[in-house]
Design brief:
Elements (H helix, E strand, L loop, with lengths): L1 H47 L2 H17 L1 H8 L4 H24 L5 H25 L9 H13 L1 H16 L1 H21 L14 H14 L1 H16 L7 H8 L3 H24 L7 H20 L4 H29 L2 H32 L6 H18 L1 H4 L10
Helix pairs in contact: 1-2, 1-6, 1-7, 1-8, 2-5, 2-15, 3-5, 3-9, 3-15, 4-5, 4-8, 5-15, 6-12, 6-14, 7-8, 7-12, 10-14, 10-15, 10-16, 11-12, 12-14, 13-14, 13-16, 14-15, 15-16
């Protein structure tokens, strides 16, 4: 008994060490990713002067992030997750480096930027569910909400520094240099993976065909009313709420005349709020009335976006996006925790891959819709009205689901 307890304590300590390593590595790489996002959006707007093309940039990212993750989840539940992360991180490094070289030639075209975005999303479709499914193997169940909050900070928190740096560096150094900095940022994750020891990943236990594994995951999610409702809630939040970011270049350049620096600051404000939201949620050992907190944060997110869309001042827009970052992060993190604790380990990779579609793929799909809607409303001048309509739709949907989630609390961890 003592040996078993000693071994469990050893593996627990190793797990937290491994979690810290991958966490710091992801912060660095995600800073690079945000810098590339800023450069991509600004470069596309400069080349085309159209919010529709900004939407198509989002759509190029959305296609693989919607189609591939359910299949990727079946792969994640069959292979060693750490080895898969080695592959995806290395290929993302190469993908960013290729775009840097194309841009440095001075002949980069819009279709090349969209193709590079497509390839990056294809790799992320395998990378993200693998990382999501790995976290419960690194920390104790009672610390999962805290770990997921910190994991959320690796991407949204990096958005505090990455866009601000990109806004400063874009004009003097050019987009190609930002793409190159993103490519070398993936070395931080590769180094972290190489430094991890004795990861007790439960993957690799699936048998049967990949097709059977995939359809079992779909059938499980479809047959579980709570999981299906949570995925639907995350989906509408992504399409009608978080898709606003694709139009921020138009807000900065044409609505408030703040230039690339203003664009970087707008993204940084949202990222700073997300960082506060993630660390604030992680600081609570236990969050009471999680369902009510989730819905309240979602409604506050809607109200903030509505106010942002009609704001006449750049500074007020920064403040509102900071609040939107806090509320959006709390909303999405609690949804993620509900799903993680409701799904048995052997299904987690597949279900979290579906959540990845809602978290990353659908905002980009929403970007196409909101960009086309803004174009229909008059081009860049229609961007605020497009954001306003999306936020109003999301607000109505959240009010409709209040009876289902208001009194719901997190379930016990399933194994």
């Amino acid at each position: 008994m003592m040996n078993a307890e000693s071994n469990n304590a050893r593996f627990s300590a190793l797990g937290y060490r491994n979690f810290r390593l991958i966490w710091w590595g992801l912060i660095v790489s995600n800073m690079g990713t945000w810098m590339q996002n800023v450069a991509n959006g600004w470069l596309v707007l400069q080349l085309t002067n159209s919010p529709l093309w900004l939407g198509l940039l989002g759509f190029s990212f959305a296609v693989p992030m919607i189609i591939i993750p359910p299949f990727a989840g079946a792969v994640v539940d069959r292979v060693h997750r750490v080895r898969l992360l080695y592959f995806t991180q290395s290929m993302q490094l190469i993908n960013a480096l290729v775009l840097a070289l194309l841009t440095w030639t001075g002949k980069v075209q819009v279709w090349e930027i969209l193709l590079n975005s497509f390839m990056g999303a294809l790799l992320l479709a395998f990378d993200n569910p693998s990382r999501q499914a790995l976290i419960p193997d690194l920390v104790a169940p009672h610390d999962l909400l805290n770990a997921l909050s910190l994991n959320s900070a690796t991407y949204t928190g990096a958005a505090l520094v990455g866009p601000a740096l990109a806004g400063i560096l874009l004009e003097p150094l050019g987009a190609g240099t930002l793409f190159f900095l993103n490519s070398i940022s993936f070395l931080a994750v590769i180094f972290a993976l190489a430094s991890m020891r004795d990861v007790r990943t439960h993957s690799g236990g699936q048998h049967g065909s990949l097709s059977d594994t995939f359809w079992k995951g779909i059938k499980y999610a479809r047959g579980n009313r709570l999981i299906l409702a949570l995925l639907a809630l995350s989906s509408v939040g992504a399409i009608f709420g978080r898709s606003y970011q694709s139009l921020l270049p138009a807000f900065s350049r044409d609505i408030w005349h703040a230039g690339p620096q203003g664009y970087g600051l707008l993204l940084a404000a949202a990222g700073g709020g997300a960082l506060i939201g993630a660390f604030g949620l992680a600081s609570f050992k236990q969050v009471p009335h999680q369902g009510a907190v989730m819905l309240t944060s979602g409604l506050l997110f809607c109200i903030t976006l509505i106010t942002f869309s009609i704001s006449p001042f750049f500074i007020l827009g920064l403040i509102l996006l900071f609040i939107a970052g806090i509320t959006s992060t709390v909303f999405s993190t609690i949804i993620s925790t509900f799903i993680q604790l409701s799904v048995p380990n052997e299904m987690r990779g597949r279900v979290m891959s579906l959540y990845t579609v809602t978290l990353i793929g659908l905002p980009s799909l929403g970007a196409l819709g909101i960009g086309a809607f803004a174009e229909w409303l008059g081009g860049v001048e229609g961007a605020p009205h497009a954001v306003l309509v999306g936020a109003l739709i999301l607000c109505v949907i959240l009010l409709f689901v209040i009876p289902m989630f208001w009194r719901r609390d997190l379930p016990q961890r399933q194994y």
